Amino acid sequence: MSATATRPLSRITFYALLVLLTWVFVAPLLWMLSTSLKTDFDATRQPLSWLPRPFTTQAYVPLLTLGSETPVLRWFLNSIFTATANALLVVSTSVLAAYALARLEFPGRRVLFGLIVGTLFIPTFLFLIPNFLIVTRLGWLDSLWAVIVPGAGSAFGVFFMRQFFSTLPRELEEAALLDGANHWQIFYRVILPLSRPSIATLTVLAFLTNYNDFIWPVYVLFSPQSFTLPPGLAILQGAYTTHYPAIMAGGVIASIPAILLFVFAQRYVIEGVSRSGLKG
Amino acid sequence: MKTKAQTASIRHTGRATPYLFLAPYLLLFGTFVLLPALQGLWISLHDWDFLLPRRPWVGLRNYTTLFSPGSRDSGDFWQSMKATGLFTLFSVPPLVVVPLLVALLLNRQFPGRSFFRAVYFAPYVLGVAVVGLLWRFLLDPNIGLINHYLSATIPWTTALPWAWISLVGMTVWWTLGFNALIYLAGLQDIPRELYEAAKVDGATRSQQFLHVTLPGLKPVLLFVFTVTILNSANMFGQSFLVTQGAPGNETRTALMLIAETGLRDFRMGSAAAMSYVLALALLGVSALNFRLFRQEDS
Questions:
Q1: Dist CA B171 CA B87 (whole Å)
Q2: CA B152 to CA B150: how far, in whole Å?
Q3: Taking 50 as the threshold, does the pLDDT of residue B193 lie above it?
């Protein structure tokens, strides 16, 4: 499949298809942005127009006011905080555990790894009810702890890092061990610096997973002050039934970190997804 | 037989070292993955009302109730299982086929290929909360962009079959990039020599596709197929946000009912039983998949 493969699909058809598809993917997002910059009247005025007449940022004002009934800014900060904390917890615990599982000998190593990988096949909704009870017992209901901690026992994180660590040559440790280094030093000085791309990928994936999780925060957070963005956006719709610019502004604010992170780490995310996907 | 490194590792680290590396992770894994996996089954065998002081043992009653017509939960449960099944049935074919076409398109060499790859993947990084909000607006019968372009007044979220078309359509838009990416990785792993050989043998483009591309993609197809089924069976946010289960309870998925029963009405025994029945159904579907794909091999 190379540049010569132009016969069944002429060059013009090919580019037309690409542009059409691009429009299908981009137009909804542009419409969200455009509507967020309109007045309520303009958002429903017929015929619909792509350009705001007039251009206004009024829809963002109540969302960015912390004391309002829909403090999207607060939910945004809560989300950034929980997703960052969760990603740090996932990455630090997975990296340590994966190092032991990939590079250290100890009894039960295979069984333990099998057990961890085995849980990857349990559908996540089975954890919903029991984890709700555990979080209740810990006194974490309606607090950000409930969104940060439970998802951090990530079997995927350990699996992902272990697969990477297993590809590193044994000679790395042998040399260091002969020089008198212990495993903590090897881990910190030899293995970690070599693992930066994998760690970056896992960080981004863990952040996005937590940032975008919907069902869990919707049911463990109740008061608007403790909401993260997903439950917040769900009630935004009810709060502004006819104020479409405000609802779309909420969507724009919530999209910014995910899109920015994606643009910034695009190569890592795409490669991480396609590689882990095939091996999963 | 011990290698030099292993002998040395015993000298330089204590026996506890591996467990110290593992401890923080195992604490989280044990508490929030391993323990709940077992506890769920235990809950499903009790009349576990979160709001009551006692949770009496009821054996399999939560399960038998689901299978007794006319009981409290069975009607709603099977309606929701039907909704989940229909969504899976409608969404899997386009989510398996369309991304493959997109991947074939993107597998050619052309300037800006990684840009287009990124654009098609972009919606996937957004959460269902944003996607649901956005599509609810796009599908609004009066002021939505979709009806505007169609010059129609289709009730996209409140009537059948439109509600299903909406839910499937927005899900394809949202997740197409993920499957396309997996296919793309698979396409790039097919050795180029196979195409060269096929060309020498006089195979046409469609013959090359049938005899080189498809067999080469087989493990990838199985993966995409299985993962897509599992994701469709987990559908929650789209229905919750866009159709709210409407019209009637037609688009209320099993996961929606499980969450409502367990986390809103706090009847956790029933909800846990429902989730095990759904999980078993999924296990059956996955087993069937693997068998089908393996049979074709022999």
A1: 10
A2: 5
A3: yes
With an 8 Å Cβ cutoff, are A278 and B108 in contact?
Answer: no
Q: How confident is the model at residue B67 (pLDDT cuts 50, 70, 90)?
A: very high
- Tell me phi and psi for residue B267, to 5 degrees: -95, 80
- Give percent of chain B with pLDDT exceeding 90: 75
Residues A195-238 pLDDT 10s: 998 999 999 999 999 999 999 999 999 999 999 999 999 999 88
Q: For residue A277, is pLDDT > 70?
A: no
Nearest Cα of chain B lies from the Cα of A210 at a distance, in angstroms, of 10
Give A40-43's long-range contacts (Cβ < 8 A, gap of 24+): A40/A242, A40/A243, A40/A244, A40/A245, A43/A244, A43/A245, A43/B143
Provide the residue type at A184 as one letter. W
Beta carbon pairs, A and B, within 8 Å: 301
Phi-psi region of A4 (alpha: psi -120 to 50; beta: other; left: phi over 0): alpha
Q: Which residues of A touch B153 (CB under 8 A)?
A: none
Q: Compute the 3-state secondary structure of chain A and give helix, strand, coil in percent, each to the nearest 5.
A: 70, 0, 30
* Inter-chain CB proximity B108 and A259 less than 8 Å: no
B148, B193 Cβ separation under 8 angstroms: no
Start-to-end CA span in chain A (Å):
27
Structure tokens at A147: 């969104």
Q: How far apart are CA B23 and CA A97, in angstroms?
A: 8
Cα torsion B226, B227, B228, B234: sign:
positive
Picking from A14, A35, A126, the nearest residue to B40 by CB comes out as A126
User: What whole-number distance in Å separates Cα of residue B198 and Cα of residue B212?
Assistant: 8
| Nearest Cα residue to A259 out of A208, A202, A198 | A208
**DSSP-assigned letters across all residues of A47-89:** SP-SS-SS---GGGTTTS-TTSSS-HHHHHHHHHHHHHHHHHH
User: What pLDDT, in 10s, does the model give residues A92-141?
Assistant: 999 999 999 999 999 999 999 999 999 998 999 999 999 999 999 999 99
- Strand intervals (E) in chain A: none
The CB-side HSE value for B286 (13 A sphere, CA atoms) comes to 18
Question: What pLDDT score was predicted for residue A7?
Answer: 56
CB A247 within 8 A of CB B133: yes
Give the pTM: 0.92
Instruction: List the end-to-end C-alpha distance of chain B, in Å, as a whole number.
Output: 40
| Residue showing tokens 């940022």 | A57
